[in-house]
Backbone:
């Protein structure tokens, strides 16, 4: 099925300028640009959206009047009404509605590597939605996308075989309500914030449901150990996709990202953060593997070779699309096809998120 008949709809579908394929495909407002018109169009064209989303990996709805979280939620629900609100990732988030959150309250200088959302939980989200409520300064704060099906195809068969054979083991260490700050460079948030409770029994039950192993450690801290496959099959298209958090949780993530961010935008600030991240990585390396703030190894606990994790980052960055946010943009992502991240920024930026 191709694009809907343009004459029959008030909107125009085209690739992102400068790209003839890959995510995101842009649906631009023509005529009635109210959020209500967009929601109605999405419902009327539900078959096209359901087919276009996995095909292109992401759809960007641009030029519509989406200014606040409730309006964004209404638009997202027009695509998928089965929104969820349980978040077990590492970013601190603030609730804007019952189902819409700020995308990340991590400090603006912190680079968020490309990842499909929550690949480490029992049932990762199928779809992810972002909305730009306050656009960042030009040339910063993008939410780059990368088609992880292409990333998989871009990796060497030998590397893919190693990841596929061994799977992955992820360790995350969270401070508790009686110790630690809300976030710093390495301890991302507290376990009571992540699970929205201080009741350890509730935390353990939730961990069991997700296949996590909870380990209480000294100082009211919680270690979570989880295991995941490196590659999954897309639930509707059957395509194989790189679907894991190896580069996100590996202790080399900040330095590895900043090395590439500096290459993309060679500023003194980026150089300083790259050097700082290298320093912190060296300090983390001296700690026993399970005591690091977060780390990823192969499933049997063997370290992933540095060259392998770098090869994955290279493949991700070769496929990176750092499109520029415009206020009111709504981005729908197939979470089993396309990954997202965040480039550093300064000043104001408000991106909202919800998922299904
Ligand atoms: Fe995310």
Residues:
């Amino acid at each position: 099925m191709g694009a809907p008949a343009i004459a029959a709809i008030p909107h125009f579908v085209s690739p992102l300028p400068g790209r003839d394929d890959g995510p995101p495909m842009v649906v631009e407002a023509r005529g009635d640009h109210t959020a209500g018109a967009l929601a109605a169009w999405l419902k009327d064209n539900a078959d096209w959206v359901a087919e276009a989303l996995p095909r292109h990996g992401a759809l960007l709805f641009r030029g519509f009047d989406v200014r606040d979280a409730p309006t964004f939620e209404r638009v997202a629900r027009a695509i998928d009404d089965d929104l969820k609100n349980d978040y077990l990732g590492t970013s601190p988030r603030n609730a804007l509605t019952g189902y819409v959150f700020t995308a990340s309250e991590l400090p603006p200088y912190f680079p968020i590597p490309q990842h499909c959302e929550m690949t480490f939980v029992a049932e990762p989200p199928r779809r992810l939605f972002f909305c730009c409520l306050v656009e960042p300064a030009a040339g910063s704060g993008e939410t780059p996308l990368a088609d992880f099906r292409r990333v998989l195809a871009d990796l060497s068969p030998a590397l893919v075989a190693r990841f596929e054979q061994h799977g992955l083991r992820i360790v995350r260490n969270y401070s508790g309500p009686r110790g630690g700050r809300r976030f710093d460079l390495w301890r991302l948030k507290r376990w009571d914030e992540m699970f929205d409770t201080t009741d350890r029994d509730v935390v353990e039950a939730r961990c069991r449901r997700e296949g996590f192993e909870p380990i209480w450690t000294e100082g009211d801290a919680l270690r979570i150990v989880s295991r995941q496959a490196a590659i999954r099959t897309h639930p509707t298209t059957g395509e194989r996709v790189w679907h894991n958090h190896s580069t996100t949780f590996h202790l080399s993530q900040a330095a590895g990202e900043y090395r590439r961010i500096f290459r993309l935008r060679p500023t003194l600030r980026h150089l300083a953060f790259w050097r700082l991240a290298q320093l912190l990585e060296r300090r983390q390396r001296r700690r026993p593997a399970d005591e690091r703030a977060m780390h990823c190894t192969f499933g049997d606990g063997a370290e992933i070779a540095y060259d392998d994790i770098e090869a994955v980052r290279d493949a991700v960055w070769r496929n990176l699309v750092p499109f520029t946010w415009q206020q009111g943009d709504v981005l729908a992502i197939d979470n089993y096809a396309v990954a997202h991240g965040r480039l550093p920024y300064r000043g104001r930026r408000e991106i909202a998120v919800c998922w299904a």
Remarks:
- Residues 1-9 have pLDDT under 50 and may be disordered.
- The radius of gyration is 20 Å.
- The chain is about 30% helix and 25% strand.
- Residues 115, 117, 340 surround fe (ii) ion (CB under 6 Å).
